[in-house]
Write a structure and sequence with these properties.
This protein is about 55% helix and about 10% strand. It is α/β, with parallel strands linked by helices and about 450 residues long. The protein has three domains: about 110 residues, no CATH class; about 170 residues, Bacterial extracellular solute-binding protein, family 7 (D-Maltodextrin-Binding Protein, domain 2); about 120 residues, D-Maltodextrin-Binding Protein, domain 2 (3-Layer(aba) Sandwich), CATH 3.40.190.
């Protein structure tokens, strides 16, 4: 079907060629030429200059032939027809290839203006205004959009905007949304093994986890775990250790944990419960209000730069390290498995590539920003403290008890934990020898 501009051009040609005694012959031929060029334009055909010249010569020959065959025409009428046909050919060539534009640039422009073929709603577990945690999905979705020339559009929605923060995977499973970006440890209540994918107390460090995920079976185990829930998980972000928490009062022994009302996530929360704390789970955006009003006495959440942006330092002045409960924090893009399987391999690869870029970018961003935040703590009255080794050893002992109990109660938990420990045992031969001591 021809576009309106082409029809206008054809009508103009008809009016031009009705002048003179050869109107029937020349009009028919010139209209054929106009439609021929319009068809080339509609197909998006693209040729080099030599081919265009050859087509123009053929067109001209057709016109001259038509003129010679027409009966009872004058020389003046023939010249008029020839001149009109040349105008048609010139205008047509401009329509196919604008002046100053070579064939390669036309193809590039056509390929860059692709129609959106994937358009998903993607709720996130962390506010996109949060540094490091929140800005990573923005980066990933933008990279995927740009790499696909706009063919893949993933629209981010803030926590609670269309799905509650802790219900993202439920909505993905039920296909209420196509995908979501979250920390899988929030699924602990319904998928007991999920915290092993998000963070493990006294577990792997970030580069260890990435090696386990990509090269030692972690990805396959996680896909099998979440495949049972109609979800395809993609590792899409990772940061270094969290802080061990923000407290109103100093922690001198584990006895100081007993009776505390504290926000704590994942397996670390179970450890704190064993120590007598009253543990609650709150989304990031609700923690400050609970801390300020006294609903909780202490909290852990994320990195120093994230926690400070949420205002924890205004209420709790003692910030403890190391982040024993989360030596790494992994975030995942979760996709409904039917939606994922319906994608072609190219689009799947684009999503995987975008998320893999998100992992290294997220970790780099995380590591680059924490030192300056901690260095400025004295200026805002915050005391950065290190938990003494005896307390860490006690926490590790309680952690081992929790992990053993969880593994005994859930086969998936036991399988994934065994895989992680086997990898760490092998990796230790390298880790213990290859890196300088931390205090060197």
């Amino acid at each position: 079907m021809l576009c309106p501009r082409t029809h206008r051009r054809v009508r103009a040609n008809r009016r031009i060629l009705t002048i003179g005694p050869v109107k029937t012959t020349i009009a028919v031929i010139s209209l054929q030429l106009a439609y021929k060029r319009a068809a080339v334009e509609a197909r998006g055909a693209n040729t080099d200059l030599a081919t265009d010249r050859e087509r123009s010569h053929n067109d001209l020959a057709l016109v001259v032939s038509g003129i010679s065959l027409a009966k009872n025409i004058t020389n003046r009428a023939a010249l008029t027809g020839l001149f009109s046909a040349l105008i048609v050919g010139f205008i047509g060539s401009l329509a196919v290839r604008p002046p100053g534009t070579n064939s390669t640039s036309v193809v590039t422009q056509a390929n860059s203006d692709q129609t959106t073929r994937i358009h998903w709603r993607v709720p996130v577990a962390f506010q996109t205004t949060m540094p490091v945690l929140g800005d990573n999905p923005i980066y990933v979705m933008d990279m995927i959009r740009r790499a696909s020339h706009g063919a893949i559009q993933l629209d981010l929605y803030e926590p609670g905007e269309i799905v509650p923060s802790f219900s993202i995977t439920d909505a993905v499973r039920d296909r209420k949304i196509e995908a979501g970006y979250t920390w899988l440890g929030y699924d602990q209540g319904k998928i007991p093994a999920s915290p092993l994918i998000g963070a493990v107390p006294f577990g792997m460090e970030p580069w260890e986890y990435s090696a386990w995920w990509y090269e030692s079976g972690g990805r396959q185990l996680t896909e099998a775990l979440y495949g049972k829930h109609n979800i395809h998980p993609i590792l899409c972000g990772m940061t270094g250790p969290e802080t061990a928490g923000w407290f109103r009062e100093p922690i001198n022994s584990l006895d100081d944990i007993a009776g505390l009302k504290i926000r704590f996530a994942g397996l670390g929360g179970k450890v704190m419960e064993r120590l007598g704390a009253s543990v609650t789970m709150l989304p990031g955006g609700e923690i400050f209000q609970a801390l300020e009003k006294g609903a909780i006495d202490a909290t852990e959440f994320a990195l120093p730069i994230v926690d400070q942006s949420l205002g924890f330092n205004r209420v709790a002045k003692f910030n403890y390290y190391p982040g024993w409960h989360q030596p790494f924090t992994a975030s995942h893009l979760t996709v409904n498995i039917d939606v994922w399987n319906a994608l072609d391999e190219g689009d799947q690869a684009l999503l995987e590539l975008g998320c893999t870029a998100g992992v290294i970018r997220n970790l780099s961003n995380s590591e680059s920003k924490q030192g300056a935040v901690i260095a400025a703590f004295p200026d805002i009255g915050v005391s950065a403290r290190t938990l003494p080794e005896p307390i860490l050893r006690q926490l590790q002992e309680v952690t081992e008890s929790v992990l053993a109990e969880e593994a005994a109660n859930d086969a998936d938990f036991a399988e994934i934990l065994a895989s992680q420990r086997a990898f760490r045992d092998t990796y230790a031969h390298w880790k213990a020898r290859a890196y300088l001591p931390r205090d060197f």
